[in-house]
Amino acid sequence: MLQNALLLVPLLVLVCCSQQNRPIIGIMTQPREDHPEYGSYLVASYVKLFESAGARVIPIHFDSTKEELLHIFNSINGLVFPGGGSFIDYGHDLFFPNSMYLYNLTIEANDKGDYFPVWGTCLGFEMLHIFASEIFDRTVLSSYDAWDISYPLVWSQGHKESKMFSGLLQDHRVFDDLSKYNSTMNYHKFGVSPETYKTNTKLNEYFKILATNSDRQGKEFISIVESKKYPIYAVQFHPEWPIFEWEESANVAHFQEAVRGNSHFGRFFVNECRKNNHQFADKHDERRRLIYNYKADFTVTTTGDVQTYYFPKK
Length: 314
Description:
- The strands form three sheets. Strands 3-1-4-5-11-10-9-7 form an eight-stranded mixed beta sheet, with helices on both faces.
- The protein is built from eleven helices and 13 strands.
- It is globular and about 50 Å long.
- By secondary structure, it is α/β, with parallel strands linked by helices.
- Its EC number is 3.4.19.9.
- It is an enzyme of class 3 (hydrolase).
- It comes from Acrasis kona.
């Protein structure tokens, strides 16, 4: 028996060490029109969510060239489209077309066997639906009254068999944390209706619905999805808020169940990024891009976000 156990040790070490244990996640920045002196911004709580789960972060400047974006894509282990108020259309600025370019690189990479995960939060959730619908405009979105309100999730059938939650079957606390308490912070005026999946076959083929909610008027919207084919995941709510945002006027939950439940999303996505083996060829290039090179401003009184990174114009 002891000999058999010893034979397993090299295999366990091999499995452990085959993972990417220094994952780097790229988070897309956005234009800030109320601060024209800056080129782009990134709310710090998105960075903290993934740092707290064991990853490092680099900002991906939305106005980068295609060559720059391709270089970054080939060097990072995962991509995040955060929430925000940016225009998600072709005609306004480079945020939407450059996000779509990175999305297309993701699909191409995964189709070739290069496991590359993507996460979308709120605006990122909506944008991923636009991409997946192949309509490429906002007609897949509906209006909702879900601004500044926390809800318990309503689970959809089969959510426990999903990639996002199947690892929790031995520990049901997170399911309870997210569905028995007002744990998920919603800050959106648009969303995706389950009815849209019935009329848009592309979305129905692409995403699996894991959870829903209803807004103040009783209109149902989708809260969590994951792609049926790709390592692409999205939530309409903000997992980072209960843990890292402290605006006193916001209806955000900070109790331990909300913190524990929302922490799952950061841990899950970072573990997905560990399955990718991209890396920077030049360590100097890697270090100069990391978020540690930038200072986060204390902005809670001006934006409602505790800290924000502002980046100079490209």
